[in-house]
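hey so u asked for the seq, here:
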Amino acid sequence: MDAQHAATEMDTAEHGLARNRAEILVAGGNCWRIERAQRLGFLIDGAQYFAAVRSALGRATRSIFILGWDIDSRMRLVPWGANDGLPEPLGEFLHALAARQSDLEIYILSWDFAILFAFEREWLPTFTQKHHRLSFRLDDRHPPGGSHHQKVIVVDDAVAFVSGFDLTLRRWDTPEHQCVNASRIDHEGKPYLPFHDLGAVVDGAPARALGELARDRWQRATHRGALALAANGAADCWPDGIEPDITDVDVAISRTDPPFEGRPGVRELRQLHLDAIERAQRWIYAENQYFTGRTIADALADRLAQPPGVEVAIVSPLTQSGWLEVSTMGVLRARLHQRLRELDPDGRYRLYCPHLPGLDAAACLNVHSKILIVDDEFLTLGSANLSDRSMGLDTECNLAIEAKGDQRIRNAIAGLRNRLLGEHLDRDPAVVAAETARRGSLIGAIDALRGPERSLLPLEPVVAPELDMVIPDQSVIDPEQSLDPGEIAADLIPHKDEQRVAGRLVAIALLFFTLAALALAWRYTPLQQWANLDALVRVGTRLEEGPFTPLAVMLAYVVGGLLVLPVTLLIAGTGVVFGPLLGAVYSLTGATLSALVTYTIGAKLGRNTIRRMAGSRLNELSRRFAKRGLIAMIFVRVVPVAPFTIVNVVAGASHVSLRDFILGTVIGLLPGTTLIVLFIDRIIAAIREPGVATFALVALVVGLIVAATLMVRRRIARDQIQKPD
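ran it, structure tokens below
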């Protein structure tokens, strides 16, 4: 049976299924808008995508909007050299476009990245240094923990690109994904590993709608307007060399946009994925960088449990990128995978990774694509990962199409799936189509076409037990909604205790004021004759040299915890005696050990005993501890909800897991402990070597503490006003 005949038979069978299929796309529900496009093209891998982007940008006469998670002015869209006579680096290229077209306005919006990514990104992009009609801004208008993750480019409101690609370094590659490629180098000439991603280019009404989306995001991020939408009939900006995969097709635009500053949230992509998975009848094919979301895993688990069996094939990278992602998103993926494997006795679920011969065992093809295909009837692609944060916390944008009985659209969707599988399996797409039709099984076709060289391999991610024990769950690493500090405070601090907590914050600030005042007194009053600070420090130096010093310090913290001594005073004393570095280490270790001992006491006493002994206020704290877990522990270490020892006992009795307790204690104590010992060190420096600089630094630290105290008090007061009596 040839490929065309097999595909025809399969199309006939699928047509019967399609007639009974409820439509997935609903404007105003799981998508923002559905607009008719004249042309839609799929762009696989960076060589095709970036060349198309450069071609379309070069045709711009009126406006360019670029939205991205990361945008780097040093990247080259066409690393082998373009033939358009314009500079190769992105920043210089865009400046040249602005200089060439007198009416062209260029708007570039990139996420104002978290410090975790500081060493991976360009700190000071050069976009705005040369031309006044090129505007570059960093987008920081997000709830805590969220990011701008949309990857959208709009040219003259006539052509638009939506993808998983960022216009940044180390994204370009060809479908061959050769282990060595002289063109796959970064701005410093250093080679990088193979990279796989995909996107789409669309024209007509969907491009115009994406122009509206880009302007809205620009205005919200910068509080500045942009050039108005172009009138209909704009010049043709379709990129050279790109043949559309489908014409005259309805294209849906789906978004994730978290609630922020009174604006309601948008979760169209969450609903779109759930609806598509629910309507699947034969198979689900996905490629995704992050398969970590509990929401998606729950939906897949439901389908795997329902007859008739739906197949699920997911392509994901062998390993995540960098130690941080391996230790977080990699752990979550392994947990979800293990869960689905246990719920799949019939073998209808597979997780695959592309294998490229010649790469080191620890290296792999970086699968960065984000696409979901259902029964070759539905397709969505764009920026959204199969993660919870992509469903609710980060800004995202996808395009989607649905066949609804139109064989042209079915062929376009099936054609893209066959191209993707053909690339990964090193097979011709026609061979993939024929084998899938012959077997009537997506997983069966993949397994039959796997070869000994370049291929797809079943992936069985595992996590070291010690790592699995300390890594928290999705609600912390991959949250679907922002962890609002005000909401946590309202949940952990009973209404009647808010002023008491604010009072403790004031007391801490007064303690630092007192220490600063004592520094002045020690230097400029007779107090220096009564209390010899140098002698105290010399005692500490001798203690440092003793073989049992660490044990003695740990014992002091444990005893102090049992006696309910304020841990702040213990940390301050440790800083005086042992200095900033060793003092911070001893303080953090001792406080954590003391916390563990009193936590164990609370666990042994049990919740009933604590309920009888503690009274209603701490009983309420116990209940809220059990609800919040790790987040609660971090919060109460930063904000003094109750005395240190009491918190530990209540946490133990509340069945807060030992992992959450230890992690929350260390994370929550670290900033305060560091600040206290550094403050003490500056106090000692001010006493020994008084001067404008030393006292100015002391004053600065005190000012920061007071400012933080006032800010927390103001937040508590605001929440108190907003909450009903």
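The radius of gyration is 30 Å. The first strand starts at residue 33 and ends at 44.
lmk if thats what u needed
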